[in-house]
């Protein structure tokens, strides 16, 4: 532990200038965030002309009817326009709020709320919770019209929306309520660790965050998700038998097998698994079950089990821990830096002893460009995992020595195509746009790779 703290102290020495030099941090945050926003807009503009192509890529030509391809192009075009306008609008609103000192105002507001409740400003954690609520409300309200437009106009126009206005607002309020019920104690504990551990907070906070993630793995499926969707055990039949047999052959600890009423909100389809190492849940969207044959859904699940077999979720968790560690290791430099708060319009009396939540929030904003790069790197890792899981499904026939698994690769290809066609997914994708935004390879890339995996698998047999 001492070695760790020595190393962290070295990092702090390098960053000592943050505490003393009057740098115009607000200006940099404006510059960075506009930079990221304009880059994202540029990506949309690169992608946009591809929606005017009149025929799908050759590999997909026989799978897309002319009508479906045309529909997917029009849907893509509408989504791109929406992304461009909403991205610029959101950035403009955030930028104005930053310019007019939203955070300093919200901190003051939080103080007044806490005073009204009968507590003094000594209660930093209470004021921090009130502050976060104020910031959250003020900054989320301008984006509500955009989500209304997206759900009831954009998705509706293309036949995906199943949400009613009542459900939309019920979801919104439920989301806020749950955010508060979980977020407030989380924030209180998070800030308490700083208070309690002082400058040696890094290992303690890491421990706290990992425990919180573990708890959420249990709480989310059992408590939170049922508030939004109905999960019912997958009914007996060919699909259930196939999935259970597959799980048994791979010794996948399948504890719960659910069908989820995803169609209540949208007709987009999906399947996923989660849970603790010894008790996994598999959840399949009713939309996927309706669209694909049991054999195709089984192939999708073979891909999902590939993620489990190669421990992809655990690896991603590890990468995210390294990411969190890096952020926490850099943070102390910004923790006691009145100059940083002054740059964001905080009055002298608040800036002298920076409240931890403020320092952390401003520090996160300063990290914006770094986070954009980390996001792209995470996408690259995730794509590599997608290929691995696809390869797993293709080669499964060798692992479980089953006649029936011979054509899993073909079925996976068919299922992927069906999902893309039904979801009207974009098929022509600009490489840079895809590298930045997509955690999955494009359909064309995956089909091509599947062919490759199939031919190497056949060669091994010969
Ligand atoms: Zn996957």
TrEMBL record:
Protein's job: Proteolytically removes the C-terminal three residues of farnesylated proteins.
Domain CAAX prenyl protease 1 N-terminal: 47-230
Main location: endoplasmic reticulum
InterPro entries, A to Z: CAXX_Prtase_1, Peptidase_M48, Peptidase_M48_N
Uppermost EC category: hydrolase
Keywords: Endoplasmic reticulum, Hydrolase, Membrane, Metal-binding, Metalloprotease, Protease, Transmembrane, Transmembrane helix, Zinc
Transmembrane segments: 129-153, 173-194, 201-223
Gene source species: Somion occarium
Cofactor(s), by name: Zn(2+)
Protein name: CAAX prenyl protease
Entry's family note: Belongs to the peptidase M48A family.
Pfam families: Peptidase_M48, Peptidase_M48_N
Keyword Signal: no
PANTHER family reported for this sequence: CAAX PRENYL PROTEASE 1
EC number per UniProt: 3.4.24.84
């Amino acid at each position: 532990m001492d070695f760790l703290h020595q190393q962290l102290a070295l990092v702090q020495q390098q960053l000592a200038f943050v505490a003393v030099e009057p740098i115009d941090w607000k200006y940099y945050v404006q510059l960075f965030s506009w930079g990221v926003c304009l880059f994202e807009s540029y990506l949309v503009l690169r992608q946009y002309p591809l929606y005017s192509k009149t025929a799908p890529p050759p590999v997909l030509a026989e799978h897309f009817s002319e009508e479906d391809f045309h529909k997917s192009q029009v849907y893509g075009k509408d989504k791109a326009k929406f992304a461009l306008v909403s991205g610029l609008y959101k950035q403009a609103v955030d930028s104005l709020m930053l310019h007019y000192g939203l955070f300093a105002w919200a901190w003051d507001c939080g103080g007044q709320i806490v005073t009204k409740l009968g507590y003094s400003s000594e209660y930093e954690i209470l004021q921090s919770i009130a502050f976060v609520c104020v910031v959250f409300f003020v900054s989320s309200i301008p984006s509500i019209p955009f989500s209304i437009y997206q759900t009831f106009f954009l998705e509706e126009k293309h036949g995906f929306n199943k949400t009613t206005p009542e459900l939309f607002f019920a979801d919104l309020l439920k989301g806020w309520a749950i955010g508060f019920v979980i977020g407030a104690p989380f924030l209180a504990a998070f800030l308490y660790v700083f208070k309690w551990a002082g400058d040696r907070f890094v290992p303690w906070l890491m421990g706290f965050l990992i425990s919180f993630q573990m708890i959420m793995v249990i709480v989310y499926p059992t408590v939170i998700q049922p508030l939004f969707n109905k999960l019912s055990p997958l009914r007996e039949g060919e699909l259930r038998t196939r999935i259970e047999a597959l799980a048994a052959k791979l010794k996948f600890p399948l504890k719960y097998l659910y069908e989820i009423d995803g169609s209540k909100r949208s007709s987009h389809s999906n399947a996923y698994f989660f849970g603790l190492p010894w008790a996994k849940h598999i959840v399949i969207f009713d939309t996927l079950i309706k669209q694909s044959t049991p054999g195709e859904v089984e192939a999708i699940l073979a891909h999902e089990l590939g993620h489990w077999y190669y421990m992809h979720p655990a690896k991603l968790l590890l990468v995210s821990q390294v990411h969190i560690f890096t952020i926490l290791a850099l943070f102390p430099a910004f923790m006691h830096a009145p100059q940083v708060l002054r740059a964001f319009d905080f009055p002298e009396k608040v800036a002298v002893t920076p409240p931890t939540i403020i320092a952390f929030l401003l520090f996160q904003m300063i990290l914006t460009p770094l986070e954009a790069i980390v996001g792209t790197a995470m996408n690259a890792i995730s794509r590599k995992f997608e290929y691995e899981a696809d390869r797993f499904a293709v080669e499964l026939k060798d692992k479980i020595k089953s006649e029936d698994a011979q054509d899993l690769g073909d079925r996976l290809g068919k299922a992927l195509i069906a999902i893309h066609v039904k979801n009207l997914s974009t098929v022509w994708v600009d490489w840079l746009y895809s590298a930045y935004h997509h955690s999955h390879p494009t359909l064309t890339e995956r089909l091509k790779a599947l062919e490759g995996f199939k031919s190497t698998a056949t060669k091994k047999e010969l």
